Amino acid sequence: MARANNVRRLARVILNGFNAYFSDFQNITLGAQSRFERADWGAVQESGHLRLALYKRKVIGVAEASTSLVGENVLKSELWHEAKQEYADIVQSHQNYEIAQTFFNSVYGYLFKHRKIQDFHAFVFALENKALDLDVNNEEISTIYPVGGTIKKLLERMFDDFEFNVPFENRERDINRLFDASVELIIPSFSEHEVIHLETLNSLFFRNKGAYLIGRVVSETTGVQKPFVVVFLNNEQGAVYVDTLLVRPKDLSILFSFSRSYFMVDSTVPSQYVRFLIDLMPNKEMFEMYNSLGHDRHGKTEFYRSAVAHTRETPKEEQYIIAPGIPGMVMLVFTLPSYNYVYKIIKDKFTPPKSMTRQEVKEKYELVKRWDRVGRMADTQEFHNLAFKRSRFSDELLAELREKAPSILEESDRGIVLKHVYIERKMVPLNMYLADASDDDIESAMDEYGNAIKQLAAANIFPGDMLLKNFGVTRHNRVVFYDYDEVCPLVDCNFREIPEPKNAFQEEQEMAGDLWYSVADEDVFPEEFRLFFSGNRKAQQSFEEKHADLYEANFWSGLQKDILEGRVADVFPYRRKIRFPRED
Asked: Which of 174, 251, 372, 379 does the annotation list as catalytic?
């Protein structure tokens, strides 16, 4: 009887902890519209950091409560097997069934130090996702507007439903802009004989300085749909305005990219929003949508399940191999050729001149996780004690792991366990992309490379090592940074010009390649950035046509001044050329 009581109480403690976490998550999220309306960008950034830190803090609290409840029995596997069964019963009708399961896994993983994670006592493999397959406590998450009368009248009704607590800069102008864009970009997708309606999600999506209304136009005749996103910005003078209308699949994909920070969305049942978004963007994965909504821990669960499923579906002969490209000094990177992700392991010893510690590298990845990635840094999933079949590893990869990261590797006759792994979206390294690129593609990539550096800097991130091999090209030809071992806040750097030699001896030193001036750890000399193009003269010329200002110390110190004075830069997840004009 005592054991049964402990099982029930343990399951209930974890569920209560989850409900408390979700409530706090929602409370932070619900403030997003107010922060947007006040143009309080500092609070926007702070709330993002606070919400990201919330999950781990709640898990630790529940783990400690669980230990107090059952004492030394807390580390007995049989207890957790029974607790899992009890928990499965009590969350069966929970509206956030799937995220609650992940919370259980997190508490278990924390207590067992991410070891012995098996489906016997955790929700490793969910055979079905009831929150997606069933309408459990289903809510109306969208509003349907039948197209009766004029499109302009319909847009007016839509604006009435999404009234902000601050005025529009020019409501009539914005409706006219949207009407013109709809006539040009959406309406031609449907014939004049089709019956169509407009449907919008009831909650706005907030991120950085933007608010996004997500919707679609649907043909009731054929079922064909055309997604759209209305982008609202704040003029920082007490009014909002429509900045643009996004309708291309590419634009939606970039908006929900793995290189961007998570949205703040009032979604009481996130799975319903996930279902709607996947319907709009069928090329996206479920875990990507959970990540976008800020539920990255459950996104991690869904990612793991999809990764296992992909491996099982591939031929047994396909093996994990060392990822193509120039080997990193700090990270060992491998991949499955058919998979769109790479696995990154911190080496035991770094190649000189790299001199940081393993812990310092981990802290860099944690910094990137909580920072505003502005579409220019890849999100990562961090795993501990990740298990693989030994037969799926190539001999070359196994030899590399044994040599470069033996402390991370555990081997048995049939299995391999990697104690600490980062998983990241696979991209084409920029140096490899340029090797086979046309002149036009080189010019575009170098413009993207410069923009990536500038946007990271505007977000108070200095990449440190800006070699071309540390940037990747996505399927949308965007350039994204993915090597984080030297990142730091921009304001921590001291940007300097290289001093001129003052005497003949110093000139001799310059000719010999010796330094004639002192250099501190935080000193950065932008003039030296030309070295990043070593051997690729065409790429350097293309870069310097648009971004030569990156060689100037004054450019960087100017950005530092803006950041220190509290100015948050505008970084848009779409091209500036598609923004609406704001003149009346």
From this structure: 379
